[in-house]
Structure formats: structure tokens, C-alpha cells
Amino acid sequence: MKVVHLTYPIKSRVTTKKLVLALGFFDGVHVGHQHLFSVAKDIAEKKNLPLMVMTFDRHPSEIYANNTNFQYIDTVEEKAEKMAKLGVDYFGVLKFTKEVSQISGQDFVDKVIVALNADTVVAGFDYTYGPKDVANMSHLTAFAKGRFDIVKVPKQTFNGKKIGSTEIRKYITEGKMELVYELLGNHFLMRGTVGHGKRNGHKLGFPTANLVWHEKKVLPKIGVYATKTKVNGKWYESMTSVGYNVTINQERKIYIESNIFDFDENIYDQPIEIKWYKYTRGEIKFDSLDALKKQLEEDQKQIRTYFSENK
Fold first, then answer.
1. Which family does it belong to (predicted)?
2. Contact status, residue 71 vs residue 219, Cβ threshold 8 Å
3. C-alpha distances in Å from residue 36, one per residue of 42, 171, 233, 268
């Protein structure tokens, strides 16, 4: 798969061939998105054309609503990795600017879709590409003027509810990681490097890797989780806490700390990844470090049992 960084208006084509163009923001690349890609891939194969997925480099609300605190399920790089595994040929990332936020639906069609040489556009039923009351899927045919085919993918549901990135972000913040897995089709992932903490875990016999993560990632609910942590290319069972370290620290700073089972190496400043499986308990302020240590022993026992029963 080739990643293509685009700027508006698009002045050069990514391929000399026509292409099937899937449009959306696709945060999380959840099972609803995956269904849309499978529809687009089938069309591309039948027409012997490459499949291009196009998204923006940031959520549009960061610009038009000045929502600078928007939190993402995936970084652009993580999104690209998922696209590659799904058989996408080109992943186009359009830089979303103030200018792009102000274009009309017709301009988007003329200067993006047509400029990319689209044979067929595939998008969800609720996709918008400008002012939502006008630049929506109902009006796309009029803007297209017969220059490309349009396939509108209907709403995808799970237990009667729409599968959407907004809902998945909410479930992450509520610690509903098993539901998140069902909707994403994979475990929620956080990446970063191991920072230098206060080594309180070492003193208790539970050394932790202190994750320094991408600041725009949505954070799981405060508490303790069954996780797996990847170090040096290998996944280890682990327990990870998200919280303020209320027993030991007074500062109002969230820490993400992973106690990696059966692992004892110095990995400061090294990259790690954490997959989130199950929320096990909330954060508790203990009266003593001994009480905290006993709870950590119980947490580890419980999480080891969870993984032994959920291979």
C-alpha cells in the first residue's frame, strides 16, 4: 500500500488509472468501516481498478469548531497500518485546513473526487463533504453530474445500535474494552515510549513501564486493566493502571503504567505497545503501601486467571 499526502485543491493524480475511492474519516477502522472497504474492494476487483481510501489528517471539528481537544482512537499511522492489512492500494491523507473547511460540496467533488480520477465513490450513508445540509450523500448525484458512479453503504449496527467511532470512543472512556473489541474487530491499542517514573512500583515488587503516549489518543477510564504489552517484538501478559497514583502521589497527572508479567529488563526510552482487554477495578486510595501491595498481588492473580481462561 502506498500512503499519499494530499493538499487542496488536488492538482496531480496518484495513478494514471481510474480508481475506486472510499471516503470517510475512519477513526478506529471499526467493523462498519471494514464492511465499507469490503464493498469497495469487491467493486475494484470487478472493474480491475485500484482501491484508494481517502481521509483527513485531523478531525474536521478541530478546525471548523476549534475543537483542539479532540481525542482519537487511532493515529494516522495506526490507521494506515490497518488499511494496508485490509488490502487497500492507496491511502490518501488530505490536509484539513481552514480553506478546506469552507469549500462547497461542488468544489469538493470537482477539486478532490474528480481530480483524483474516481470511477466509483463508496461512502457511508451519513458521509458529508461540506455543509451537512447540502454536501451529503443525498445530493452527491447532482454534484457528480454523471462523472462517476456512487455506492452508498447503509448504516451498520450492533445489537440494534449504529456502529460509530463516536460511540467507540465513549466506550473506551467507560472502560468497556470487551465491547470495544467487538466493535473494532481488534483490541484498542496505545503506543509510546517508556518514560522515567518515580519507581514506586519497583519498591513494591511490581515494576512498571510508564507509558509516554500520543497526547491526542482517547484515554481509557481510570482503573486497572488486563492488558498485553509488546516489548522488543514480543507480547507479554500484563496489568495496566490508568490513574493518578492516589496512594503515593498528590499531583493531578494521569499515569499509564504497565506491570509486565514474567519480564525483568531495563526498557527506559524504548517503544512499547499496550492492548487493552478488560477493566478489572477502579482506582483505590489505600491507607498503607502494604495494603496497596496486597491489592496488586490480588490484581495480578485475577488477571493471570483471566488470560488462562481466555486464550
1. Belongs to the ribF family.
2. yes
3. 10, 22, 31, 41
Residue 263 burial (10 A CB sphere; 0-12, 13-18, 19+):
middle
Write out the three cell numbers for 284.
Answer: 483505590
Q: pLDDT by residue (tens digit) across 230-270?
A: 999 999 999 999 998 755 565 678 999 999 999 989 999 99
Count of alpha carbons within 13 angstroms of residue 225, beta-carbon side: 31
User: What is the grid cell recorded at 125?
Assistant: 450513508
pTM, to two decimals: 0.93
Burial class for 108, CB neighbours closer than 10 Å (0-12, 13-18, 19+)? buried
Mean pLDDT of 56-80: 94
Instruction: Report whether 94 contacts 58 (CB < 8 A).
Output: no
Amino acid at 147: R
- Could you say which DSSP state residue 139 is in? T
Instruction: Please state, in angstroms and as integers, the Cα–Cα distance from residue 288 to each residue in 34, 144, 201, following that order.
Output: 48, 68, 14
Residue 203 near residue 290 (C-beta atoms within 8 A): no
How many other C-beta atoms are found inside a 10 Å radius of the C-beta of residue 269?
A: 10
Longest distance between any two alpha carbons in the chain, whole Å: 72
